[in-house]
Automatic annotation (TrEMBL):
Catalysed reactions, as listed in the record: IMP + L-aspartate + GTP = N(6)-(1,2-dicarboxyethyl)-AMP + GDP + phosphate + 2 H(+)
Name this polypeptide is given: Adenylosuccinate synthetase
Organism: Micromonospora echinospora
Family of this protein: Belongs to the adenylosuccinate synthetase family.
Residues engaged in binding IMP: D13, E14, G15, K16, N38, A39, G40, H41, T129, R143, Q224, T239, R303
Gene giving rise to this polypeptide: purA
Compartments reported by the entry: Cytoplasm
Organism ancestry: Bacteria, Bacillati, Actinomycetota, Actinomycetes, Micromonosporales
Amino acid sequence: MPAIVLLGAQWGDEGKGKVTDLLGERVDYVVRYSGGNNAGHTVITPDGQKYALHLMPSGALSPSAMIVIGNGVVVDPKVLLQEIDGLAERGVDVSRLRISGDAHLIMPHHRALDRVVERYLGSSRIGTTGRGIGPAYGDKVARMGIRLQDLLDPGILRKKLELALREKNQLLFKIYNRKAIDVEETVEEYLQYAERLRPYIAETRVMLWDALDRGETVLLEGAQATMLDMDHGTYPFVTSSNPTAGGACVGAGIPPTAITKVIAVSKAYTTRVGSGPFPTELFDDNGQHLRKIGHEYGTTTGRERRCGWFDAVVARYACRLNGVTDLVVTKLDVLTGLAKVPICVGYEINGERFDDMPMTQTDFHHATPIYEEHDGWWEDITKARTEDELPENARRYIARIEELTGTRVSVVGVGPGREENVLRHPLLP
């Protein structure tokens, strides 16, 4: 079987964890390929247990799949070990975890700088989670990062940390008036993590190549989403990695020719956490309704999510950019009870209509959505399992999304549970 990419088609929080868990029993490997513990997946099992995963791939709840953290992820070892211990305490087998030795580490100076710089920016802040992800990726690109494999060589770890702190402590102490990071304390702390993480560190590229050669199925799971991509999202209000389909190849070491299916997940409306442009954002009772009924609060931060109507311009952009073969639309049930359900089909900018994403940041900031109104439905759809069991207006709404995005909608989520889905087309043979 080929490799499959699963990603978000909006600004994140679309329900990728649920889809990964849905596929988990039918794939052999689940690979996280980007981001850090600034992302969160919420998975609800058939017996009603709720799991909030941050660094661990959502496939951790699969009974048999190998779970891999790829080289494109930045890892806070303390957070990862807490997550491993939490899952083990609840009876989840974590022995199947493998972590690329080339994954970069989030260090104390990354977290410190992330928080202080964000405060320093004031009203111009990006809206980071303060967990050190951006600074860790910055050091990676600057070729002064510390990788997971460095934990296995105390001499290399100390040498690299001393070099990094030669600059970072100057910034913390002299510019931001913060306490400098102590080299020896940090080395001692991270060597303790090394002893526990050693059994999980592996050459994951070869592992995945061998799996593909054996005909096994590899699911590549992105964190965040398309519109937060460093190169293709709403820069600078983006994450520091590439959660798009191209990033899956880089972040896991999978060749592009191995990927034959790209599954994108989108809510039936739109949400965003943090700062940045959001054309369909609602500031009225409808926005409050979506937030309340959809429980729109961040898995990682607990922050309220900004809510708006479905943006077909963004969705179409994501489908074309990623080469999406199957679209999963989640949380359709949240729209139940609304008399009218608008869809944004284009933007008006300075009197001109745009049906595709505008080129410049300025234009996108000033985009006014052009809406197409659809009649709502009042029936409870949470028990629907086939398309025929959905109300006619709900079926029309999904059909219109399919038409506007140019991509088939294969699964419709009608509730938070693993089984609460309408399957229109199989995601796997």
